[in-house]
Structure formats: C-alpha cells, structure tokens
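Hi! If you just cloned this repository, the fastest way to understand the data is to look at a raw example. We've pasted two of them here, unedited. The first protein comes first, obviously.
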Amino acid sequence: MKENLFSLEQKVAVVTGALGLLGKHHCRALAEAGANVVAVDLEGEAAEEFAGELARDYCHDAIGIRTDVRRPDSVRVLRDAVLERFGQIDVLVNNAAINDMFENPATAAEISKFENYPLDLWQASLDVNLTGTFLCCQILGTEMAARNHGSIINIASTYGIVAPDQRLYRTPDGRQEFYKSAAYPATKGAVIALTRFIAAYWGERGVRANTLSPGGVENAQAGFFVNAYAERTPLRRMAAPTDYRGALLFLASDASAYMTGANLVVDGGWTAW
C-alpha cells in the first residue's frame, strides 16, 4: 500500500479564525485529509455548530472553542481543552486576523488615509494579527516542542511582501473609496519574520513553521475592483476560497517534512511582477 504523504489521519489540527471566509475552508481541507479539527473563533456557539458540521460531513472528531487570541489566559484554556480531548496538538493554523473594513463609505477614504489612520485601529491589528499569532505559537507550539513534532502554519499575505496598490481601490470615475491601511501589511510582514524565528528556534525539536501568503479572494467585491485585481494578476483572476486548500495540506502534512522557515506564496502570480 502506497504511503499518502498528505494524510492527516490521527492528527489534531487547531485553526484560529475558523469561521472566516478562508478559515472554514482551512478546516474542511484538514478534516477531509483525516484530521480531528479544533475550530477556534470568538463566536463560541457558532464555532461549536461548525465543528458539528465537520464531524458529520467527514466522520472525524471536531470541536469548536471560543478563544480570544489576544489574551494569554484564553489561549491557555484552548490548549488545555485540546489536550484534555485529544492529548496532542499536531497542526496549528494561525488564521485569525483583522483586515480593516470601513462601515461608512462617506468617511472611509479620509479615515483610512495614512495621514489620518487612527492609532486604535493600528493597535487592534497589532493585537490580533501579530500578538495573537505570537501567543498561539508560544503556548500551543510549546506543546508541540515537548512532543518533538508539529507543523505551525501562519497565514500571512502578499501585502506582507509587497506594498498595497492603492489604485485598486479607486472607482472608474477616479474617486478613492478607501486606502489599504499600513496596519495590515505591517502586521503580515511581521508574521513572516516571526515564523522564520520560530522555525530556527524550534527546528531541532521537530517543530516546523511556515507561512502561507494568499492573494486576494473574490468575495462579492465591486466589479471594478475584481476587474482591476484580475488585470494586475498573471492568472487574470482573483482567488476562489478553495484555491488554498492544497497549499495548506502540503504545509500541514508530511509532504512538506523538510520544509521550514519558508513563505509559500499562492497569489496567481501577483508578486511575480
């Protein structure tokens, strides 16, 4: 019988931000590969309901847990609950993140300008995108290191590699709807650096750490934006939410057993030019 390098049978995978657009697809991909999935989100009841769907659809154990990744005590509760239920943590996907949304179109452009960008929004992104990733890596990753085995996958972004193209957010009549803020690229760039640190620090303990940097996902954006994004991308389209499942499984499984400290960029060629 041939070995399936992508199998996650008997593995336990923790996914933060599990109820997000990509989070749900991450969870489904891991469950389909055989993992017992821990769906982590601030919405505890919804996470439990989603875990029930995973267990039913893929016939593997799954649990949903409310966790605030900004708080060490909350992440410790998550760790203890996972260990009590499964006794191990094999895969950690740090997917929880803030990506600024501005509710009022009339003021979005002015508020999101770098010159005016509020400190509280900057701090909120740091707390979730960077500190939350740090805490989950530190607290859950320590358990991996104790067992000399594990794969940490930190979700970064193409905007952690290159600067946002603010022209994408400009309507055909030349009006700037909003500006992509400095907070998202700054935190995602830091996540890439943190991942390299962890890879070097825990490599001798059998813990691998890599980043997955996705490009933009089509999700009911305005037509002018989708078209502009596609025009700027060699594959001439935005990503579908399912386009990252293969890359995630590669990083989670033994298929990438000799890969650590890397940034796997899956962006339709966005950063190629």
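Ok, and the second one:
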Amino acid sequence: MKTISVAAAAGCALLAYIAFAQSPATGPNKVVKTAKVGGEGGLDYIYADADGRKLYIPRSGQQNARITAFNLDTLAPLGEIPNINAHGVAVDTKSGHGFASSNPVAMFDTKTLALIKTIPVEGNPDGILADPFNQRIYILSHRAPNATVINAADGSIAGTIDLGGAPEQAATDGKGHIYIDIEDKNNIAVVDAKTMTVTGHYDLEGKGNGPGGLALDAKNHILFAACHEPAVMVILNSDTGKIITTLPIEGGTDGAGFNPNTLEAFSSQGNGTLTVIKELSPTNFEVEQTVQTMVGARTMTVDSKANHVLTMSFEYGPTPAPSAAPPAAPPAGAQGGTGRGFGGGRGRGPARGPQLPDSFTIVEVGTK
C-alpha cells in the first residue's frame, strides 16, 4: 500500500498483486479490515469524514462516473451521487455540505447525498481541501487558476489563487494558514486564508523532488512532504520552512496524512506499502513501520476518531510478458496512463497486469 494474497491463497491461480498483512517490519499497525466493494471505474483520492462517519470514494469514467459513500465504521455502502466525474471529495462539517473536485464542481448534502448544485470553474480540478478556518473549499488544478476558492455555505466562488505551479495536496492548520505542495517546482506554497494570497514558498532544496503528498502536524508546526525522487519524506518547520530532516519512504507516493492522536505521519505508495513515520518530538522522527496494503493503493485518508488509515486499489492479473508493440491505451476512466489523471502518474507503482473484474477493495490500517 505478504502473507495472505490472491496469488498465494489456497492454490488460487489469479497471481494478483495484492497483499493484506503486516510487513516483516515490526510496528503497531496492521491491516485490520478489507472490503471488496467491486464496481467499475477509475480512482484517485479517498476521503474520510471523521465527524460524519462517512467514507467517500469518487469513481471515474464515461460510463461509471459517481461518488460512493460508505459507513466509515463498517465500510458498508450508504449510497451514491451519480454522474459526477471527480478526483476527490471534501466536507465542510459546519454546513453539512460536501464538494467534489469535478468540473463543474459538485456540491451535495452530506446527510441525504442529494446534489445541491454544480459550480462551473476554470482549470482542471484535481486535489481538494476543506478549510474550517473560514468555511472555504480549495479546488486545486495543475492548470491556471491553480486554486479556486469556494464558500462552503452557499457554493459561491470567493476567488482564485495563482500558486506558481502545479499543486498536488494541501493541508490547513485551521488558523488561517494553508500549505500546498507544488509538484513541478519542488516547493510548498504558503497561503493566507484571509486574503487568499501566497505569502511565500518553502523550497525543498534538492532534498526531495516532485512532492506528491503533504501532511501537517498543526500543533507542533511540522510539515511532511512525501516526494518521488528520491523517495523520501522531507520534514519541515511550517512557520519558517526550515528543513528538519528527511526519511526514506517507499516508491510511488501519491498521498500523505497525519494523525495528531498518535503523532504518526503516513505516506501511501503505489508499490503496495504504507510508510509510517513516528514523531518522537518536534525535532526527532523515525520510520516506525512499513505496512503492506495493496499494489496500486497510492492515496490515503486518516480517520482521526478511529485512529485508522484507509486506502484502496484493485486486484490485478499476471503481468503480461514484455512485447515490442506499444501498450494499448487504457479504457476511459481506468487506472493507469500518463499524468496524474484518474489513477495515473508517478504514484502508479510497479508494472501490473489487467484489473480483475469487481475487485475494487478498501483497505483499513490501524492497531486494532
């Protein structure tokens, strides 16, 4: 994200790249639950609404576009919002409004899952963040405008922000400061939530390139930037941008998170691993554990009430033999391809065979 896998289970011949057990690395975390929920469509982000106890997963594709909601405690399906071709979801707890990073942006009622309205925006919506500081939603785009800011209460557009590059993931301290990793510039943009202006950029100074995930310990003012090349977590002071240290992670990162209850930062990787970094103090960190999840499980979300991490992927058949012919283009909405898109990009992980039908699976990691 191997002791139990589709390839090894009871003589099964699927040879899928999937694993549901704790890696040999010792540590408190393990896969505590899986749910094979199936269904067609590509994937990108996964989002846990810890207060509302719902898990949202957008599924993409011309025929399969929708947002599916699951019970965050049982992983049982709760319903769908159809015909929404989105990358991610975020929820404003105060208003009870959810938003999808689609174009147009979809605004919905989190209790009923009814669509409230759609909001036309420019750019190409990808990442998304809900900021409780002033009840605004940040829609991130690799194309200008890099961030469209929406008022969560009524869905009106508050403004747009030029971040100076292609954003991937954002984090908020809930006190007026937004941090956004800029993948193509190898820095972290600092945004004033009151004025919607960029107040600075924290350069990663060559310690890590292509930050694909970003997490924040708001209490201790620590940023965790999960980078592609080399595969490291760059750890910075969020007030000054000073780099504290770097730690190794696994290949194909495309998401990061932080649990303030356990003082653990996480990086999910397309090679099927979840790296857990323990904050021993605001200046002392260690790689606590590497947990095996599923190959392709490259994005993640933290359920801060259950102290669990959730990720997702498909099961895959055997890797095809090398061929001189170029690979066929994936079907619309399928995982793969170039660019970040719906499941492509640097977080894809190792080569793999075809997706197995109805194998889409949610993986939950925790201590119990």
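That's it. A detail worth noticing about the second one: The radius of gyration is 19 Å.
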